[in-house]
Amino acid sequence: MTKGNFSRREFLEMSAAAAGGSVAARSVLLSPQPLDTSARPAAPSDTIRFGMVGIGMQGSGLLGTSITIPGVECAAAADLYDGRHTLAREIVRPGLPVTRRYRELLDNKDIDCIVAAVPDHWHRQVVIDAVSAGKDIYCEKPMSHSAADGVAMVDAAKKSGRIVQIGSQRVSSQICAKAKEIVSQGMLGDLMLVEGSMGRNDPNGAWQYPPPFDLSPQNLDWDTWQGNVPKRPFNPLVFARWRCWKEYGTGVAGDLLVHLISGMMVMLGINEAPKQASAVGGIRHWKDGRNMPDVHAVLYYYGDLPVYMRLNLATEMPETYRIQGSKGLLEVGEFGLSFTPQLGIDTSPSYYTGSFPRAMREEYERKWHQENDAKLAKAAVQESISFRMPDYDDIRPHLTTYFDAVRSRKPVVEDVVFGHHAALACHMANESYFRGGSVKWDEATKTIKG
């Protein structure tokens, strides 16, 4: 087995193995795919200079990773909290230009593109402002704070012709890419059901982050940070834990579900919104004033394919998919995947004949063995196979693809349409939860309907 794509010979061998009656197993170690730009310096004329908008928990990580990519430089950073100006300079360089006003970065002709990691309720404005100013932009997931926001962002991006990449890094995962090969080559047969789950069980995992000690209206532009939502008095906990409130975030759906949905879309070759969503859940553990559920389970229909996703902030669970087909089971995790073929045929006489009279049962079994034993004896070995990916970070290749696209104008791996469809699944999950009933996506009116 090669470490890259399946050859036709290898696929035929595995398909033949899947038809057999005996069982065998093997494991393959995946090697990280080299990035084209990782080993060579870029000429000064090819250097991409980006502006960073938002230097919080995710933004600081994106900033630190971006500046390690050859041919990429940070030209300036913006954040509404002055403490993050200090952090940006600690990450990049002491003299890095910083500001509270991200539009200064959009007006800067020396900045080629933007990387943005701001609260969900700011995504629409920052993305539309960026593409309208002629800047490409990488925007963190979920792409939008609402379905209407997503529609507006897609329209603005298409009108401007600028590059928009959304930061659901599973789209650049080699694990998902390998799973896509297995699905696309028909090894699972007809798809029956897809399950996905993820869970945490600690205060940090439930977004109970400690606010900066010095946070105050003097070093944070609180009114601007709140945006267009109804104003509330200054609250450091809301600033640090904004995912807990639907006014600013999209809850566990926008934080975790979007990863499961994006990865599934890649593996199954889907780029559309779910047709229908039905959600259950509640605030069952983290009763800290939040209004977003900490347990959220959603049943979707993608076309006629049932998809069941489960999120939980009070039970630790690995990020896992179970893609179920008529010819086998594909289980996908964060660091590997396994495929177990299934025959889908009888390998022994039917146990139902235990209800037959003895003579009838014996006659049935004699005929069954006469018709099937020779075929089963000639069947090839039924082989399960697993792939492991040690210590793989999908954020760097996801960012590298973005900066390469800015330089070459080639398409990105997760454009505004893909990001919109993934986000719609999250919005439908939230809408179903709050409405207490099933919802559907109406493409004609581009709205979620109950």
Q: What is the rounded distance between the termini?
A: 49 Å
Largest sheet: 11 strands, mixed
Beta-strand portion reads 15-25%
Say how many strands there are: 17
Low-confidence stretches: 1-21
Q: What integer value in Å does the Rg equal?
A: 25 Å
Helix and strand pattern: HEEHEHEHEHEHEHEHHHEEEEEEHEHHEE
The share of residues in helices is 25-40%
Give the spatial strand order of the biggest sheet. 1-15-14-13-12-8-11-10-9-16-17
Q: Categorize the overall geometry.
A: elongated
* Coarse structural class: alpha/beta
Mean pLDDT: 92
The number of helical segments is: 13
Explain the overall architecture.
With 450 residues, this protein is an alpha/beta fold. 34% of the residues lie in helices and 23% in strands. The protein is built from 13 helices and 17 strands. The protein has helices spanning 8-18, 57-66, 82-91, 103-107, 123-132, 147-160, 174-184, 222-226, 236-240, 251-268, 358-378, 395-408, 416-435; strands at residues 22-29, 48-53, 72-78, 98-99, 113-116, 136-140, 164-167, 191-199, 276-282, 295-302, 305-312, 317-325, 328-333, 336-341, 381-388, 439-442, 447-449. The strands form 2 sheets. The chain has an 11-stranded mixed sheet. A 6-stranded parallel sheet has the order 4-3-2-5-6-7, sandwiched between helices. Strand 6, helix 6 and strand 7 form a beta-alpha-beta unit. Helix 5 (123-132) runs parallel beside helix 6 (147-160), helix 6 packs antiparallel against helix 13 and helix 10 (251-268) packs across helix 13. The chain is elongated and about 90 Å long. Mean pLDDT is 92; it is low at 1-21.
